[in-house]
Amino acid sequence: MMLSAVLAAMQFAAADPQVLTVRTNASEAFVPVVVAANGPAVQARLLSPVIPTQITEAGAGRYRVSIGGVDLTVLLESPYLEHAGKIYPLVSAPFIDGGELYLPLQTYSEHLVRLAPSKFKYTAVTRELRFTAPARPAAPVVASSPAATRPAVRSQTIGTPPSTRVAPRKRRVVVDAGHGGPDNGMTGPIGSRSKVAEKVITLAVAKRVRDALVARGVDVLMTRTTDTLINLYDRGRIANKQGGDLFISIHVNGPNMRWRNPASVRGFETFFLAEAKTEDEQRVADMENASVRFETDAEAESGDPLSFIIADMAQNEHLRESLELASLIQDQLASFHPGNNRGVKQANFAVLRTSYMPAVLVEIGFGSNPEESRFLTSPARQTQIATAIADAAVAYLANYERRVGGAP
Ligand SMILES: [Zn+2]
Q1: Where are the domains of the chain?
Q2: What's the CATH fold of domain 162-404?
Q3: Ligand 1 centre from 24 Cα, in Å?
C-alpha cells in the first residue's frame, strides 16, 4: 500500500501544476505553470532571470531556444523538439500566447535533465528545476553537445540502448494479459445477468496473440498464462529481465458511469505512456492502475520516488516508438472492428512505466456494451483481434529493423 501511496502522491503532484521553482545556488524564481488545452506549459522567457535563456525566431513557426546552454529547436503546433539533430517527443506542442513562447512543462522536467544531466536536476514532487552553471567560463554552444552528455544518461537509465543491437536477431515481444487472479478487471456487460470478467478475455486474446506471433517467427514471452495475479510493476520487470523488444498489454475497457448512456459506449483505443492529458485518458489510467490495490507490500521498496523518475526517463526514450506501434495497432483493428476507432491516446500507466522498451496498452473494446461484449468473447473475433495486434507488431519490428539495420 506504501507503493500506491507514493504513486498517488506523484500523480497528484503531476495533476495539479501551479508553479515551477527554478533555482541555482545564487537565485531562484517561481514561474507560473499554465494549464493549456493539452497539458501544463511554462513560458520559456520567465526562466531567464535565473537560467541564461535565449529565444530566437527562425521562421515558419520555428524557434531556437537555448536554456542554460542547451540548444533546442521547436516548431509551433508540433509535439516534438530537436536537439543536436535528434528528435524527442513532447506530450503537447509548444505554443505562443501573448507574443511569448510556451514549452510543455516536460521540456524542463524531462528533456533538459536528460540532455544535460550535469547542469539540470528536477524534483517532481516539489516541481523544482535546479540549474548548476558550469564551473569554467561559458564555452561555445558546442561544448554542451550531446556527445559528452547523452551516453552517460543512456547507460544510467537503459543499460543496453537498442541502437547497439545492430545485428539482426530474433525479436521478442512481451504479451501481457491484463489483470488476473483476484483482480477481475472490469466486468460486463451492463444490464446482463451473465457477466464476463476482463481477465478472462485478456488471457484468451493474449494467448492468440502469442500463437499468431510465433507463427510469424517472433519470440514471445507471456507475463501470465493462467488465472494468476502478477503485480503491475513486475509485469514490466519480467519483460526487462527477458530482454523484450516490445511490450503489449491487453485490456478490456469500461465506461465512466457518469456518462449519459454508459452501456452504449464502444470502441477500441491504444495507449502509450506519457502524462495523461485529458479527463478521459486519466479515467482509463486510474481504472487500470487500480490493480495496485490487489498487490501486497512485497514490492514496496520499489516505491522509491527516484526509481519512478528514472523509469519515466527511460521509457521516454521510447515514446516515439511506442506511438508508432500504437498507431499501427489502431490501423489494424480499424479494418474490421465494429466499434469506434477511439484513436491513439496517452496515459500514465504503471504497467507501461516499468518496461524499458516501446510499450503500449490496447483496450480492445468495451466489455460493458452488450454487443461489443459478445464480439470480445467470440473465439473467432478474439483470433481476429489477436491477428491484428500481431500483424501490427510485426510491421513495427520490420520498420524498426530497417531503421537500426540501415545504420552503418
Ligand atoms: Zn484492464
Answers
A1: 3-149, 162-404
A2: Aminopeptidase (3.40.630)
A3: 43
